[in-house]
Automatic annotation (TrEMBL):
The lineage of its organism: Bacteria, Bacillati, Bacillota, Bacilli, Bacillales. Pfam families: Catalase, Catalase-rel. The keyword Oxidoreductase applies. It comes from Paenibacillus pseudetheri. Keywords: Heme, Hydrogen peroxide, Iron, Metal-binding, Oxidoreductase, Peroxidase. This is Catalase. Residues 373-382 have a biased composition (Gly residues). It is an enzyme of class 1 (oxidoreductase).
Length: 486
């Protein structure tokens, strides 16, 4: 009798399983027989159920939703999903902490990843940012070293504040992000009560080929809410999955979180004269110079059906562009264009974009073949090289990336601005006295375990250069004095 139309348990190759409670043995006591192929397959699959966790952003939560255009910005970009007011595009978002492992607590002081995959009619567009507008480093060559400081010491297997502050004190460009991280916003109350940012500068190109520079800002409609450190620590011990649970429950009961998307637009030529390098991801653009322009609204209205299939296997890359959106010369972005896709090819497999959560809504046509998990018919008997005379897909010149001017020598150089202090100093001076006090307390608490006073003094100098009061208060809290000569 056919088993196709019933609810029989089957093996991965579709054969019905007769006994899923008892392994096959030689006699009642065994030993177990190697011929029990169902047992072997079950154990072998179990051993492989966990793909390697992400090196960064390992702990995350996700949801499905949609993006709806509310303002016509076709004068700036030809991106199809932004082409008309009212147009809706399905999306998937993943929120995450940066430094912790897959089982770490949600309510730690850490930036939050804010990655959005738009399933557009011209392919997937990934906007892979954080809940902060800046980052710790501005060149991809420093990123592995920075992340090493956030991970565990290779000898003790413990988090190492000496490494954290040693790196930061020797990398003054990190001061702006450190100041944000140590502020109230370093521990959001929930994933729903925080902003999101593309962080990098990107390029928008319109139908006429005219380009502008752009930065993305997602503003939460739920309002900003943060956790006090003592409450965050209490929750971390009692419910380490607090943020994950909150997001799931809110959507499950119909309290759909939403964000308004805004952009800042900079004319191409302004990049040469603006007072900060607009491609330096440790800096922000003044909203007085480049005001926020509304684009649309993002709503999360559906929870994943399966965490592993969707949240764990979803892959994002800043290099997943669509026509009308392109890269800028941002040095950190340039490195991420390679690193993210390469991480997914290692972690999930070379055909990660074929998985349902990553698969574009449009048909994929290319000459990439084979590799692990080559789903579908692997290109069938069609052409497998290009150019060909067999009617295979061809490039479309109208979608070529727009040019931008470059000049100078091929060399390893830094950004031409070493002003790492004006913007974090301005941020401190914008805070209320209560916010300043909490900032200093958080910094002092984080630096107190550092064993080397030279590291502490080096970092104090950075805080002092940003704002003398800030430097003095941090030094006093650590029982030290601001080094002379400042």
């Amino acid at each position: 009798m056919s088993s196709n139309n019933n609810n029989n348990l089957t093996t991965s190759w579709g054969a019905p399983v007769g006994d899923n409670q008892n392994s096959m043995t030689a006699g009642d006591r065994g030993p177990t027989l190697l011929q029990d192929v169902h047992l072997l397959e079950k154990l072998a699959h179990f051993n492989r159920e966990r793909v390697p966790e992400r090196v960064v952003h390992a702990k995350g939560a996700g949801a499905h939703g949609y993006f709806e255009v509310t303002q016509d910005l076709t004068q700036y970009t030809k991106a199809d999903f932004l082409s008309e007011v009212g147009k809706r595009t399905p999306l998937f978002i993943r929120f995450s902490t940066v430094a912790g492992e897959l089982g770490s607590a949600d309510t730690v002081r850490d930036p939050r990843g804010f990655a959005v995959k738009f399933y557009t009619e011209e392919g997937n567009y990934d906007l892979v940012g954080n809940n902060t507008p800046v980052f710790f480093v501005r060149d991809a060559i420093k990123f592995p070293d920075f992340i090493h400081t956030q991970k565990r010491d290779p000898q003790t297997h413990l988090k190492n504040p000496n490494a954290v502050w040693d790196f930061w004190s020797l990398s003054p460009e990190s001061l702006h992000q450190v100041t944000i991280l140590m502020s109230d916003r370093g521990i959001p109350a929930t994933l729903r009560h925080m902003h999101g940012f593309g962080s990098h500068t990107f390029k928008w190109v319109n139908a006429e080929g005219n380009a502008v520079w752009v930065k993305y800002h997602f503003k939460t409609e739920q309002g900003i809410k943060n956790l006090a450190p003592d409450l965050a620590a209490k929750i971390a011990g009692e419910n380490p999955d607090f943020h994950t649970e909150d997001l799931f429950n809110a959507i499950d009961k119909g309290d759909f979180p939403a964000w308004k998307l805004y952009v800042q637009i900079m004319p191409i030529e302004d990049a040469n004269t603006y007072r900060f390098d607009p491609f330096d991801v440790t800096k922000v653009w003044s909203q007085k110079d480049y005001p926020l322009i509304e684009v649309g609204r993002m709503v999360l209205d559906r929870n994943p059906e399966n965490y592993f299939a969707e949240v764990e296997q979803v892959t994002f890359s800043p290099g997943s562009f669509v026509p009308g959106i392109e890269a800028s010369p941002d040095k950190l972005l340039q490195g991420r264009l390679f690193a993210y896709g390469d991480a997914h090819r290692h972690r999930v497999g070379p055909n990660h974009n074929s998985l349902p959560i990553n698969r574009p809504k449009v048909e994929v046509k290319n000459y990439q073949r084979d590799g692990g998990m080559a789903l579908g018919n692997n290109g069938g008997s069609g052409a497998y090289y290009e150019p060909n005379s067999l009617g295979g897909p061809k490039e479309a010149p109208q979608y070529k990336t727009s040019p931008f001017e470059v000049s100078g020598n091929a060399d390893s150089v830094s950004y031409n601005s070493d002003d790492h202090y004006t913007q974090p100093g301005n941020l401190y001076r914008l805070m209320s006295e209560e916010e300043r006090t909490r900032l200093v307390q958080n910094i002092v608490g984080a630096m107190t375990p550092v064993e080397n006073n030279d590291i502490k003094l080096r970092q104090i100098v950075h805080f002092y250069k940003a704002d003398s009061e800030l430097g003095q208060r941090v030094a006093s809290g650590l029982g030290l004095s601001v080094p002379g000569g400042l």
